[in-house]
Specification:
The protein is of the alpha+beta class. The chain has 16 helices and 21 strands.
Length: about 475
Amino acid sequence: MNQVDNKKLFIVLIIFIALLLGTNLVNYLIVSNAEEEPRTIIRYEQKTHELEEETALFFEALQRITTNYFYPVEIEDLVEGAVRGMIDILDDPQVRFYDPEELEEFLLDARGSYGGIGIRIIETGEDIVVFEVFPDSPAERSGIAAGDIILEADGITITGEGIERAVELLRGPGDTTVEVTIRRPGSEEPLEMTVTREEIQIATVSSERLNHDIGYIAISNFDSNTARVFLEHLNKLEEEGLEQGLILDLRNNPGGLFDQAVIIARDIVPEGEIVRLIGRDGEVEDIFTSNAEKKSYPIVALINEDSASAAELLAGAMQDRGAALLVGQTTFGKASVQQLEKLPGENAIMLTVANYFTPSGHNIDKHGIAPDYEIEMPDILHYYRYFHPGRLELSDYGPNVEMLQDMLIQLGYELESSGYFDEATSLVLTEFQIEADLPASGEFNDITWIELRKELDSASRKQDEQLNFGIDLILDSAPLNNAGRTD
């Protein structure tokens, strides 16, 4: 090997050891923004000479490949592959490596805003389909609608290129334009429109007043704006009057930023412990607390199997501290805390650095939080909005057909959920199309999908047994007055 190669290997050695150790004492900052909370430091120590012995195999293999391998190979690619391999060995789905592009995307998501046109898209086969249009967004003002298929952006074909490529082309700085070509269900000719991008604030919190003057707040996930926006919604509802009570909907919330859940808990969990962090040595690393007074109105929190991470932190604190009763189904069971560690070359690695326990000492990781009242929901009401198989017709067979049949059954039509698109399915679909004032083809197509989703949007609220049970629980406030765990 020449001097240049030796120098490269030496640099790789330094980077690799730095990655594996961080330093002899690695300080992981778990939470930095939880309202002046003291910084939590977890210290890990390794013996350098032991590490050198264990990594000798890696460096010997690296040297042999770079010296003797027939085909050209970049040392940087080998090192990145080694890092990704280390992550695979950990078998921890929360740990991952970010290259510069992936890191930029992650930080955009955590920030809660991005430059774009204000749509959520899904990939169906080779098509990129508009799944949702955000209210008062550039897309809505330009006339883009749910169900539209995006064909091109700035003259570049999107079909068949994957969802990541579509996102790359549609996003961009505010006050720039993008030429979008779409195919609208029911329209033969493509539509072209010029959309001016804006800074899109991702809405993670929504609220309304339900029947009986009960307040309702839903949190879809926790980004850097969630706590602030939640408190704005809650304060508005409280100013208008929340004597009857509040329903906090944490269903289908995958979690997000730890500190945002802590800030919210400090407002709605009465004085005392919210959550404790446990390091890898089993010692308590930090305890987060609240100084709030107990709310004067009853609270019910809705949870399900897709409530995870920060959502479980908040739900567990509310349950243990008697702030609310939980209604729904046992949560996902993800109670680990991750920390983003920057690496050379604008790369990063997300590491699991601690677990959190509820105030009563429950370890919910891989177990979840059991509700106080277990109320099931039909699976179809969880997942119908993600259904977009394209065209279905007589003799088709499979899970897409079965899901279509389940949706029609949920709307009250008499039909067998067989997974086979038979004459009975075609007749029921024809009946639905006639009632929706659509062409009565008896086949499932994009126009039918849009109308079917509208009907299920309405039905999902009316048939939401978990929400309706929560309302009844609030109206019968006796159980809520005795909320709280003693175990």
